[in-house]
Amino acid sequence: xxxxxxxxxxxxxxxAVLGIAVVGGLAWWVLADREQLTTERDAAKAEVETxxxxxxxxxxxxxxxxxxxGDTRQRYREAEQAVRALQAELIEQSxxxxxxxxxxxxxxxxxxxxxxxxxxxxxxxxx
Length: 127
What we know:
This protein is mainly alpha-helical. It has 3 helices and no strands. It has helices at 2-8, 11-106, 117-124. It is rod-shaped, with a radius of gyration of 49 Å.
C-alpha cells in the first residue's frame, strides 16, 4: 500500500510535506522555547528588582551606622577631653590643698587655739 501511495504522490510533494513538518516542528520548538525564556527573563527581572531594593536598604543602613559611628567617635573625643580637663582641675585642686595643709602643719603652736569640733573635723577631712 505504501508503495502504491508512493507512486500516486510525486516525490516533490513528499519532500514539501516533510519540509513543512520540519519547519512546523521547529516553529513550535522555537515558540515554546521563547515562552520559557520570556518566563525566565521575567523571573530574573523580579529577582533583580528585589535584590536592588534589598541592596538599597542595606546601603542606607550602612550609611546610618557610619553616621552614628562618627557621632559616637565625636562624643568619645569630647568625653576624653572632659576627663583630661577634670583630671587637670583635680591636680590643681590637690596642689592647692597640699600647700594649704602644709601651711597649717608648718604654723607655730602659738597660732593654735580652741576650734569648734565641727570645724576641726571638716579641716581634717580635707584631702
